[in-house]
Automatic annotation (TrEMBL):
Organism whose genome encodes this protein: Limnohabitans curvus
Protein name, as recorded: UDP-glucose 6-dehydrogenase
Catalysed conversion reaction: UDP-alpha-D-glucose + 2 NAD(+) + H2O = UDP-alpha-D-glucuronate + 2 NADH + 3 H(+)
Single GO BP term: polysaccharide biosynthetic process
Enzyme Commission number: 1.1.1.22
Amino acid sequence: MRVTVIGSGYVGLVTGACLSDLGFKVVCLDKDEDKVKMLQAGEVPIYEPGLKELLSRNHAEGRIRFTTDAQLAIDHGDILFIAVGTPAQEDGSADLAHVLSVAAMVGRNLKDFKLIVNKSTVPVGTADRVRAAVKHELTQRGMSSEMFDVVSNPEFLKEGAAIDDFMRPDRIVVGIDDGIHHEKSQRMMGDLYASFNRHHSRTVWMDVRSAELTKYAANAMLATRISFMNEIANLADALGADVDQIRRGIGADNRIGYSFLYAGCGYGGSCFPKDTQALVSTAQAHGQLMSVVNATEQVNERQKTLLVDRLVKRLGDDLTGRKIAVWGLAFKPNTDDMREAPSRVVIKSLLERGAHVTAYDPVAGHEAMVALKLDCAGQEALLNNFNLVAHDMDALHGVDALMVLTEWKNFHNPDFQAMKLSMRTPYILDGRNLYNPDALADLGIAYQGIGRRNELINLSVEPVMLETPALNA
Ligand SMILES: NC(=O)c1ccc[n+]([C@@H]2O[C@H](COP(=O)([O-])OP(=O)(O)OC[C@H]3O[C@@H](n4cnc5c(N)ncnc54)[C@H](O)[C@@H]3O)[C@@H](O)[C@H]2O)c1
């Protein structure tokens, strides 16, 4: 069985790389010529641990190819994955333009039976629309409209651990509808994922609509756990309790478990924000309320501004003359993905208040510049006060505060003494609760985490007053 993956972004490349590593002959199609040229030359356009090695090995061994040639790609695969983007539109609903244009392209190029597998995250009913778009093209060409099937196979990988998630899935959701191709489609999907089902079956078979909704339900549930913990953390701050102790106290309950209970400065990424919005939008279109998911989003938006609010409370609203360091730009560690990253909200807000921001991220610097240029469109002068540095300690010279926004491993155990000497005021706003408040208290470093008995940690360390009194306002 041969596989074609249409859309060579995060999901498409990981899917293609992993399936080629399992022995399938894979063709990855993308409409972006530069991206395909890079891939053909052995370069990988995204940072994802292990991906480059996996692609180069399978490319060298002839199991994976990259192309912009639609006809070649459609001819190649018995299974055609759709893995193109489904970004949020202005009203929050998912934009299906890429998915439907791929469906039409498949219909224009189809010569024999193909199984179309929808891997993009799409609202309920999209498989029907893909089916209709393919049929329309086939009918135009005077061909049988029964020479394909459409199934749903949503992707649950996490960026930063994508290869491992794909190769060792908790479950594989496959939605297939009753119809003349049901048995054949089920057999093909079973064969495709047989390597993962040898020990016990990880595949959860269901109908297409349920599979489409399962993906949104999973992301909404995970996002809700984060926002719930963020609200508990903010309450813990107000009450002098410690959210990390609470996390361990509730996580030990089997009914709750430990995952996704970390409080922080908000979630981001290409999935949770857009998928929760799309779910709310779908519910609205069907006259349903999604109160919990709505609240999840609102809490997250507030959480992204929490650290700046705290800084302003201490240093004043006008941050002119203040220097702030930021460690971590990507929305999470082990990726350079800046989509919806909290750092974007934080940095823009600091720059608008007149602060000078020096930032460090192990891999996301380039993507961060692209994102911040977009965010500051029309206010380009703001970026004169922003600079990136190549080492974490270089960000700290003479700063009034350090904000930690991404939990990269190399931020876990820094040299606090050296940091204290380098900073103008030793003050850390820890957006990922990486540090031990008691240890920092002993070191005389002012510290604010998220939900960690905030007001108690050395906030008596006075900020340095600036020479111009107005700047201390
Ligand atoms: N990134 C994640 O962590 C993740 C996880 C699970 C599910 N998803 C879902 O998977 C889908 C893809 O996400 P992504 O992050 O990989 O997107 P992406 O933006 O990284 O990649 C999409 C790719 O599709 C290509 N493309 C668009 N239209 C095309 C066309 N007509 N023909 C060929 N190529 C085309 C683009 O050029 C791009 O390279 C989305 O629906 C997303 O919600 C993403």
